[in-house]
Amino acid sequence: MSKILGLAVSATLLAASPALAITNLVSNGSFENGLANWTIGGSDGQNFPPVAIFYNSASAYPIGAFGESVPPDNSASNSPDAVGQRAAYFVTDLARAQSLSQTIFLTPGRYEFGFSAFAPQNGYNNAGDARFQATILGTTIANYLVSTGPVRTWQAFTGQTTIQTAGLYTVNFQFDTNLNPSKDIVIDRVYVGSVPEPESWAMLLAGFGLIGLMRRRSNSATVVSA
Q1: Please, is 82 exposed, middle or buried when counting C-beta atoms within 10 Å of its C-beta (0-12, 13-18, 19+)?
Q2: Within 13 A of 112's CA, how many CA atoms are on the CB side?
Q3: Which residues touch 187 (CB under 8 Å, ≥6 apart)?
Q4: Using an 8 Å Cβ cutoff, are 11 and 64 in contact?
Q5: Per-residue pLDDT at 17 exceeds 60
Q6: Is the peptide bond before 62 cis (omega within 30 degrees of 0)?
Q7: Of 73, 74, 115, 122, which is the most buried if we count CB atoms within 10 A?
Q8: Which residues of 163-185 are buried (b: 16+ CB within 10 A; e: fewer)?
């Protein structure tokens, strides 16, 4: 009965504790549904808007990265989303603040956010550079020239912030180019998730400690037969 009681207490504590895994509050953060839930902004002098391409596809735009097969995201991302079949692709050579954005409602608390990025080789070889910027919940976690980053290597970007006031907050990616042809960028696994406050973690650890103590007492108990 002691073991059964211990399991019951364990289940109760786990049910009452915050989730150990982040739940993604971004809709379609892995672009498996194309660019649904995302808004395209800025200007494009070539009419090559951002699209959701397919991994491992050597097809032309808008299915693939102009003939280059992009491998699935293998970065050390904290995103709760599994790697799917698609990713978002910025490619126009004449972009002026071209953007992908989404607005989400958040309540006060601590949040973690991030995404992954990849520079295809064919775009990297172009003479023109591209500036890529990611601003999530008011925090800029990426702002760099594609020429200064790695090529054909997925990299993960992450950050945290505390939201004080409930309201709408923006996830925004911006792409700028100034020469034909220019470099391009692929992004995937965009996420925003609530993380437990230190007090919540302390309660969770205390609960696990209680479970361990009960199990040790159960194992050391002596059964007396009548």
Answers
A1: exposed
A2: 14
A3: 87, 88, 90, 115, 116, 117, 118, 134, 173
A4: no
A5: no
A6: yes
A7: 115
A8: beeeeebebbbbbbbeeebbbbb
Question: pTM for this structure?
Answer: 0.81
Residue 59 vs residues 56, 90, 153, 188, 205: alpha-carbon distances, Å: 9, 16, 20, 19, 50
C-alpha 56, offset from chain centre: 21
| 39-62 b/e (C-beta count within 10 Å ≥ 16 → b) | eeebebeeebbbbbbbbebeeeeb
- Tell me the per-residue pLDDT of 65-123, one tens digit each, with 9 for 90 and over: 999 999 999 999 999 999 999 999 999 999 999 999 999 999 999 999 999 999 999 99
Tokens representing residue 65 in the block: 């990265």
Is residue 137 within 8 A of residue 57, CB to CB? The reply is no
Helices assigned H by DSSP within the chain: 2-16, 121-124, 198-220
Q: How far is CA 172 from CA 56, 106, 152, 179, 187, in A?
A: 26, 16, 23, 23, 12
